[in-house]
Amino acid sequence: MPAKTTRARSKKLVVPAPVVQEGPQRPDVVLLTNEQLWSDLQNRVKVHNYEFALAVRDLKNTIEFTKAQFAKVSS
């Protein structure tokens, strides 16, 4: 009796087409002018100077308070 042979069925592979990705899209924003940036910087420096002056004042008050408390304890 002859041997049975089976034929392998070839399956067609479906290869998806490569996805072409576009580069990053530029956001739709309004850019500030140099004058606006300069004005913003000046305002931020004013706020910084004000807050720094308050911090220095608070630090001086803290030092004076600590000196007074130390003098009470030392006496």
Structural class: mainly alpha
Poorly predicted tracts of residues: none
Q: Over the alpha carbons, how many angstroms does the gyration radius reach?
A: 39 Å
Mean pLDDT: 89
Shape: elongated
Oligomeric composition of the shown chains: single chain
Output the helix-strand order.
H
Q: Could you tell me the strand content as a percent range? A: under 5%
Number of helices: 1
Separation, N- and C-terminal Cα atoms = 122 Å
Helix content: 40-55%
Please characterize this protein's 3D structure:
The chain is mainly alpha-helical and 75 residues long. The protein has a domain at 34-75. The protein contains 1 helix and no strands. The longest helix has 41 residues, at 34-74. The protein is elongated, with a radius of gyration of 39 Å. It starts with 33 loop residues before the first helix and ends with a helix. 0% of the residues are buried. The mean pLDDT is 89.
Short characterization:
This protein has 75 residues and is mostly helical.
List descriptors:
elongated, mainly alpha, 75 residues, 1 helix, 55% helix
Chain-wise SSE layout:
Layout: H1 34-74
